[in-house]
Design a protein that fits this description.
Elements: H1 2-13, H2 18-46, E1 50-55, E2 58-63, H3 68-102, H4 110-135, H5 138-142, H6 146-192
Antiparallel strand pairs: 1-2
Length: about 190
């Protein structure tokens, strides 16, 4: 869902460029299809590879918890987010150059609104990705220390904030900008009358 929102926002930032839209949709579909194939492989292997454990005299069946396939999905999603970050940074630099060239007379634009809300979203995603890559380390995952539990907890908190706070905030920032725009146009109409 967030990928669709990011495609729509980048499409708006690139002045509704059809080429950019096609590029983003193709990359998004490639990432999602690859993640789906990896998940299907993971589900099919999950039921094929198991082991029998004898714990306190009871027999239990357990499946091996491989970290390779989930990490591949996470890496593909990180590649998508880095691509979106680079495209957003490119347009932000171009936007700020234009603002500096044209001066402060241009006022607030949709670009300002989109860029402001993108910064916090990408900063949080960078934190989540760093924590995720730390937890992929075999030395870290086998460690039962308090530090590893703190990193796991911080990663889960940032992930929840990324998905359920900052993601919807991307949508709400557009609505907020549009409401201000409508309010300013209504105020201008009443001043003319």
């Amino acid at each position: 869902m967030m990928q669709v929102v990011m495609i729509a926002r980048l499409h708006a930032l690139y002045q509704r460029s059809r080429t950019m839209l096609i590029f983003l949709v193709i990359i998004c579909l490639a990432v999602n299809i690859a993640c789906g194939a990896i998940a299907a492989i993971g589900l099919s292997l999950r039921y094929l590879v198991g082991e029998e454990l004898i714990l306190s005299g009871t027999y239990q069946c357990a499946f091996l918890d491989g970290q390779l396939l989930p990490s591949l999905v996470w890496i593909l999603n990180t590649v998508w987010e880095v691509l979106v970050l680079c495209l957003s940074a490119r347009i932000a630099v171009k936007h700020f150059r234009d603002l500096r060239r044209l001066g402060p007379l241009t006022g607030s634009t949709i670009g300002n609104c989109l860029i402001k809300s993108h910064v916090l979203y990408f900063a949080c995603f960078a934190g989540v990705s760093c924590f995720e890559f730390i937890t992929l380390s075999p030395a870290f995952s086998s460690s039962g220390s308090i530090g590893s539990e703190i990193v796991n907890g911080a990663q889960q908190i940032l992930f929840a904030m990324h998905m359920f706070v900052l993601g919807p905030r991307l949508i709400l920032s557009i609505r907020e900008y549009h409401a201000k725009l409508v309010a300013n146009s209504d105020a201008a109409c009443t001043c003319i009358n």
